[in-house]
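Chapter review: from sequence to fold.
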Amino acid sequence: MALTKDDIIYKYPLPVYNYKVTVDSKEMAFSEVSGLDITYGEVILYKHGLSFMEGEFIQSINSTETQKQKPATITLRKGMIRGEDTLYQWIHNHWVNTVLPMTISLCDEEGNPLIYWDIKRAVPVRLSAPAFNAEANEVAIQSMEVFAKDIKIIYEK
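The token string follows.
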């Protein structure tokens, strides 16, 4: 049976190459985004010392500590362009604008966002220069690490 266009649109995974990054309502271009993790406090496993009983028991799954979302470190990679200092200005001035909202959107083939990673609080913590190598013929890529809190995933219907 042949697949219809709707089958492909609604039943196949989305490609990861079509995405948008927006920081404080300004769209920015990045070649790679990683570290979009949502992690909650660790579950404590209790191993009893009785040899006739086997297994592990979960001791604190409903504690307050396991319900808090841990901050994520998101890495953004971008090619360096002559005269563009957006990332440097962001990290240089982050003490003035301490916290900025950030959205990362996975888009369809027309650029319409389908899934959002909505980050309420993002603070840049590291800006790394590209590795310089006289024998390489590569594009200069800088990377920035952003400390992110309050990440929510929103799915468009």
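Two observations follow directly from the output. The first helix runs from residue 5 to 11. The radius of gyration is 21 Å.
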